[in-house]
Amino acid sequence: MTVEFALVGTVLALLFAGIIDLFQFSTITRDVERSSAQIANLIASCSRSSDQSCTTNTMNTVIAKQANAMIRYYRSGLVMSMAQISESNNTLKVCAGNMTYLEPDVAASALAQMADKDNAIVVVVQIRYVAMFARVSQVFTGSASSIIRGWTTVVNSSGSNAC
Questions:
Q1: How far is CA 3 from CA 6, 7, 9, 16, in A?
Q2: Where are the beta strands (DSSP E) in 8-74?
Q3: Model-level pTM?
């Protein structure tokens, strides 16, 4: 009976540890996606005004204060990237922000949302996730850490290129 309990208890403990890591991973993923959407909407609402410097100033302020924007994850390798982009003839051009180019998946997502001569704000938030139970996670995934990345594209104007 003791041996059976030890075998079943070990399996249940590993299963419980895996569930905790899965829950933590999904919570962080949700926070990353929500933060990118909120920041993109903030910048996009500013850029709807006629003042182009408002967009640039808001991006610079968010970049400078990123530790305060996601204070819970700042020590987890938080990286915030943002750009104002313009689309012309199915080609994206980065107008402002701290991104010099868009990753292929981010660019494909932006192009799918934009029409010709649209302007948009893209915000990418990235965090390095380290599992609470690293050994258990490593058994199931092959790695104890991974990168969680979320992005949002908000189209803020149509009909004229900003760049």
A1: 5, 6, 10, 20
A2: none
A3: 0.81
